[in-house]
Amino acid sequence: MTATEAARERRTGVGDVLLDVRDLRTHFEVMDGTVKAVDGVSFSLRQGGRLALVGESGCGKSVTALSIMRLIEVPPGKFAGGEILFEGRNLLKLNDREIRKVRGGEIAMIFQEPMTSLNPVMTVGDQISEAVLLHQPVNRKGAQEVALQSLVDVGVPDPKRRLKQYPFELSGGMRQRIMIAMALSCNPKLIIADEPTTALDVTIQRQILELIKNVQERTGTALLLITHDLGVVAETVDEVAVMYAGRVVETGTVEEVLLSPRHPYTRGLLESIPSQGKKGQRLSAIKGVVPNPFRMPKGCKFEPRCPYAWQAGADEEPPLFDLGPDRMSRCWLYDPRYADHLAEYEGRAPKKSAEVAS
Amino acid sequence: MTDGAAAAGPAAPTAPAAGPRPGSADERNGEALVEVRDLKTYYPIKAGILRRTVGQVRAVDGVDFEVRRGEVFGLVGESGCGKTTLGRTIVRLEKATSGQVLLDGGDVLSFDGRDLKKMRRRMQVIFQDPVGSLNPRMPISDIIGEGLLAQADKQNGWGERKVRDKRVSDYLEVVGLRRDYTRRYPHEFSGGQRQRIGIARALALSPEFIFADEPVSALDVSIQSQILNLLIDLREQFDLTFLFVAHNLSVVQYISDRVGVMYLGKLVEMADVAELYAHPRHPYTIALLSAIPDPDPRVKSRRLVLTGDVPSPANPPSGCRFHTRCWLRRQLNNPENCETEDPPFRELASGHRVACHWAESVVDAAVADVVPTADIEVPTELPTPQDVGAPVVTEIETPSVTDVVEPAEEAAGTAGEARPEEPQGPTQGRV
Ligand SMILES: Nc1ncnc2c1ncn2[C@@H]1O[C@H](COP(=O)(O)OP(=O)(O)OP(=O)(O)O)[C@@H](O)[C@H]1O
Ligand SMILES: Nc1ncnc2c1ncn2[C@@H]1O[C@H](COP(=O)(O)OP(=O)(O)O)[C@@H](O)[C@H]1O
Ligand code: SF4
Ligand SMILES: [Mg+2]
Ligand SMILES: [Mg+2]
Question: What is the ipTM of this complex?
Answer without folding.
Answer: 0.83
